[in-house]
Amino acid sequence: MATDISHAQNLEKAQEFLLTPAGIGAGELEQVMGRILSSKLDYADLYFQYSRQESWSLEEGQVKSGSRHIEQGVGVRAIAGEKTGFAYSDEIIMPALLDAAQAARAIARGGQEKPQAIAVHSGHSLALYAPCDPLSSLEDTAKVALLEKVEQEARRQDPRVKQVMASLGGSQETVLVMRSDGVMAADIRPLVRLNVSVIVEQDGRREHGSSGGGGRTDYGYFLTEERALGYAREAVRQALVNLEAAPAPAGTMQVVLGPGWPGILLHEAIGHGLEGDFNRKGTSAFAGRLGEKIASAACTVVDDGTLPGRRGSLNVDDEGTPTQNTVLIERGILKGYLQDRMNARLMGMAPTGNGRRESYAHLPMPRMTNTYMLAGETPPEEIIGSVKKGLYAVNFGGGQVDITSGKFVFSASEAYLIENGRIGRPVRGATLIGSGPEVLTRVSMVGNDLALDSGVGTCGKDGQSVPVGVGQPTLRIDGLTVGGTEE
Amino acid sequence: MGAISVDTKGTPSLEDLAAQALDLAQRQGATAAEVNSGLGKGLSVTVRRGEVETVEHHRDKSLSITVYFGARSGSASTSDFRPEALSEAVRGACAIARYTAEDPFNGLADPADLAKSIPDLDLHHPWDLTVDDAIGLALRCESAAFATDPRIQNSEGATVTTHEGVDLYATSAGFMGTVRSSRHGFSCAVLGEDDQGRMQRDYDYASTRDARDLPDPESVGREAARRAARRLGSRQIKTCQVPVLYEAPVARSLLSHLVSAITGPNLYRRSSFLVDSVGTQLFPETVHLYEDPHRLKGIGSSPFDNEGVATRYSDLVTDGVLRRYCLDSYSARKLKLVTTGNAGGVHNLMIKPGSEDLTGLLRQMGRGLLVTELIGFGINSVTGDYSRGAAGFWVEGGELAYPVEEITIASNLRDMYRGLVAVGRDVDRRHNICTGSWLIDRMTVAGS
User: pLDDT by residue (tens digit) across B334-356?
Assistant: First the structure.
């Protein structure tokens, strides 16, 4: 019940903010929708958005730059079968809206106008975060002071720290979706992040390390539990480890992945390949494999947009569908895809709350939220202890996947050799490559230490970026190709 | 003034908006200010398996302002051009400048470096493309792909895009420059399937300033199909150290890494593997790298950089020796150097082509790996360590033996630049950075 009350409040605020200034009320929305709908159209939606964001950055001990950005607009989409017409305007005014509607509906050629009565009604929503405004949650002087403290903490760790770069960013996004089925939904989405990156130098060798975090909350998050200072310490620790790193091995070997952010494995190897659009079109290596065994029985993987306060979470997706916990793989069996409304309809499945878009100027697509593997029962020490010779990778940069061949990569930024069950010397960063449909069949041990990442992930698809989360327990993979330089 | 061929629906011209923003900033006490602004429109049409898939109408609009209060600065941007939004952006930038630290290197570019005249680089060729025409071209492109090879059974679609717009840069010191430009293209991505049901995807595209310079859409479709089909039957190879030939479209990335490593912020932060490297031998003596910003119709052409500094032909590497960095005014002041007109990046970076085409380079390599696709981001910019996922072909006796996938290629960028054996004459001109294929003497290939 609480969720419906907060949604009603979000809807009211969003309307007041996005529509009222332009004199747009329920009647006007119905008029626009009526203009779009025709006998040949299956679906249409209007997506209103207003977002404010800021960023502050520090280098050489001082906050020397900061910026603010304001963006607003409305996107109009019309769908007929597999065809989509799309137009948008950065002005939220009736004439622009009607123009965009006209352009979008042209996709359904020859369709008769079919004015129909649309009963606008409120959809459902979760309440996973407060509709707070991060930008005003801290005085500007305090934002500057926070970054300065982070810098001092990093420098205090070790005299070999030569450069500290830190940035603080926050945004608040107000969105309102109106669909042709009459459902109207709104969301007010805060998001904050803090990143620290350091350069260390010793005997002419330089290395870097980075850390950070955030979520759907305000800047107060960084002040509690010394979080911001923790990022500074972690960035320095990583950089110092890398100063000692030897060349990484090359070839296929046993790999143990640490908990948390290494879950980028699941995002690349599994997640993208299970997005509905690729499967409807038959372009994914996973197409047509529902019900098949694609992982070892130790693996259960979910995409869960309902985790409170998480970076990848949403009260409703960008099509007004409440997010959910979707089981992708259950004990090794492929159970489900990630769907937006269009692909769900065309595949005869239910939407899963994964319809997301970067902004009003982009079309929604099936996208991940927070993707992770459930915990197993093995203590992580036992997993490392079981490996005679292999790689232990605990931190990663980015990754990428070729959906069609299923080949994916992710690049380790902190890794160690394992020799006779013990963690040995650190090795330099290397890219790991594998095959999505095969890699999880080689997962032989799953740890009891599930962790989610700290909240810095951004996923890119077709040029659109959206915030996401990943997670996993410690995993042992019996055979993954490690791209070092030492044969 | 301000006659923009983009439909502006009665809104003021970019010049007027910029002048207003600069005026507002000065009235708020800013000692200097600069504005970057753009306005554009476009159409993008995709067909897939012979049917229209998306028709997207684009309109983009942005204005960003940086204000200076003495040595302090703040920035803001907005996509909303109404007067109240504009003044909110200016106020936002000024508010930030109250809290940022004094930075003596801040400020506008030196007036002596600014573009005095703005040459017409022939960049603006609007294409009066209707949705129906675009659909027709996209259908021709995709159907040519399907007709090329029976193993091409699926498609991600063929897309036709057109975009035109105007970009403006103006300062409180009186500089105001606008550049109108257009860009049009075809792209096509298709999938092949082998007899075991394993799929491969590849693509091709064309991009030009003037639609009359585009190739036939059919040629793009055929090339996409040829590229996808030749990857069928890919396998892993054993870990080895061999020469690696980067096909021109992927060789470009090696120049992007170079540009990033010699760009101002990475140098003054000492977060680059190429700090203090001007005057050193980075490449073999045959290598010549230069920027040619005024090439007519060039994809990267621009009369001035992002802070109004005049661009000009300039060598980056001659006789294999790095001659300069890529700097804007701020980085230049910090490094006690002068700006190189690279605020916002390089403009038409070219490497002098060699004498061999791809076939000749394959013969020169004899045995090794031809790389046609790279995935992932495995580059450590501080150390130059390089490790990326790759796909391509095993080469024996100077000829393609079989397609290869699920491998990585690794080395260090310094060693790779020093080990550049030859550059092809198969120059890929679709980008701001233009190069032929690169033959590198030795890298570690990790496989089974």
Answer: 999 999 999 999 999 999 999 99
Judge: A407–B391 Cβ closer than 8 Å, yes or no: yes
pTM: 0.95
How far B249 CA lies from chain A's nearest CA (Å)?
17
Between chains, do B96 and A68 touch, taking CB under 8 Å as contact?
A: yes
CATH number at residue B173: 3.30.2290.10
With a cut of 90, say whether residue A294 has pLDDT above it.
yes
**A68 contacts in chain B (CB < 8 Å):** 75-77, 89, 92-93, 96
Beta-carbon separation of A206 and B89 below 8 A: no
CA-nearest residue to A66 within chain B is B74
Q: Which of B178, B202, B230 is the last residue of a domain?
A: B230
Which B residues, 9 through 38, put their C-beta within 8 Å of a C-beta on chain A?
9
Residue B390 sits in which domain range? 240-446
Q: How far apart are alpha carbons A70 and A97 in whole angstroms?
A: 20
Residues 198-257 (B) with a CB less than 8 A from some CB of A: 198-201, 231, 234, 236, 239-241
Domains (range + CATH), chain A: 2-243 (3.30.2290.10), 250-483 (no CATH)
Instruction: For residue A162, list chain B residues with Cβ-Cβ distance below 8 A.
Output: 270
pLDDT higher than 80, residue A3: no
